[in-house]
Amino acid sequence: MSSILTNSSAMVALQTLKSINSNLAKTQSEISTGKAVASAKDNSAVWAISKVMEADVNGFTAISDSLSLGESTVAVARQATETVTDLLTQMKGKIVAAQEENVDREKIQTDIAALRNQIASVVGAAQFNGLNMVQGSDDVNILSSLDRASDGSVTASNITVARQDMTTGQGTFGTGASLAANGTASAAAVANTANTAIVSVGNTWANNDVANLTVAGVELAYTFQTGDSVSDVAAYFEGAINGLGLEGISASSSGGDLTISTTRAFEEVAIATAETTAGDGDVLITTLNGTGSLSLTSGDIAERAESIAFSTSAAVNEGDSYKVTIGSASYDYIAGAGESMEDVAKGLKIAVDSAGNADLTTRVVQDSTTGAWSLKVDNNGSSAAFSLSGNADGEASGGLFGLSSIDVTTSAGATAALDNIETFIDNAIDASASFGSAQGRIETQNDFIGKLTDSLKSGIGSLVDADMEAASARLQALQVQQQLGTQALSIANQAPQNILSLFR
């Protein structure tokens, strides 16, 4: 049936043309924007995922900038600590030269002061964008990642870089919990008296019996003759020992008792006795230590020094403050982050040495059996009270604490400086190694973030980007369909004209 009111063919052709035009418009949009999903109406689920990932990409771009900034900051700090290490090594050469007495120590001290000033200059200038990693003790957090959980929550991750304080500040002594129990003094006072051993010569002997005595590795012998007395033997050994000129070792006798004395600090003196019997007699020699008979044929005279033995089990926390009191003077050291009792002992040694008291000499040793670290102190002056105290919650001493007090113009100062410069060099090397490790980690993370960002961008592209080859082919097909649809609509619109022929 034909109708001039309803043209079904034209309506079908029109709907077809509208569909073609809609698809054509969508394809043209893909080509012009490059995206298959340009808005939420195109595909809401994919669009939502892509927007979340795009936000993450922007976040990771900012993180990459943060890592680059952090890497540069740590690189400056590493370079500074390596320079400080080199300068300290040069300073060690000067200090070694000062051990020789026939040198101009004043000029050497001038060179040391110049190197010390250069170290201070390097430490002060080692900043990047105002952040100096070789001053202070607070850790620095560098934003390193954004971690998205399966529930959609996001947390920030950081790379923590520990500052390495290369300043010479003493720090601030703590007022927190007592730490006095972490160290034990060997005596209540440090005296300047000599340590002694007594060798007693027995009364039973025969002609040509030989008494042997070894002192500090030197062997002495006396051959008994008829008519000799025990006092003759003791007196002979007294003269022989004093005639050796052994540093810090002397002898005196009274009757058959020979007293051997030593003022050597940090060094035991070995005493050994023996006898060779030529006849039926017997030479009796026993060693005493001045506090009672030990019934020994050999032994050592203990070193002259008192010590602070530190705990092998107590932890050392940042800000732990320790004070050694010798007489009326006190010497402080405040531990930094990650330090041990070895560092505390060495820090207190530096504190004592830095005071410039020529009567006091120090040494840090570790017990080979227990592993305990000890600070040993010897005193050539008047007897002085000796004790250790400590409190938590202080402000740490600088890693080069005591450097400003190095003075090689005296023999005692040169000796102390030689011990302490090793501690300074170790601290600088440890700081360089720490910064080097942190810089390597930051570089690795930055490289990973760059690759991760590229992967995310690629993933977003696979979700929302248009396939340009397919879009091009589809565009041409739709253009042909549009032309055909237009032609079909034109033909359908001609149908009512055919009805006129019925009325002619």
From TrEMBL:
Key words of the record: Bacterial flagellum, Cell projection, Cilium, Flagellum, Secreted
InterPro entries: Flagellin, Flagellin_C, Flagellin_N
GO CC, any one term: bacterial-type flagellum
Domain Flagellin C-terminal: 418-503
Pfam families: Flagellin_C, Flagellin_N
Domain of life: Bacteria
Any one GO molecular function term: structural molecule activity
Domain Flagellin N-terminal: 4-137
Function in brief: Flagellin is the subunit protein which polymerizes to form the filaments of bacterial flagella.
Family label: Belongs to the bacterial flagellin family.
Name this polypeptide is given: Flagellin
UniProt organism field: Maritimibacter fusiformis
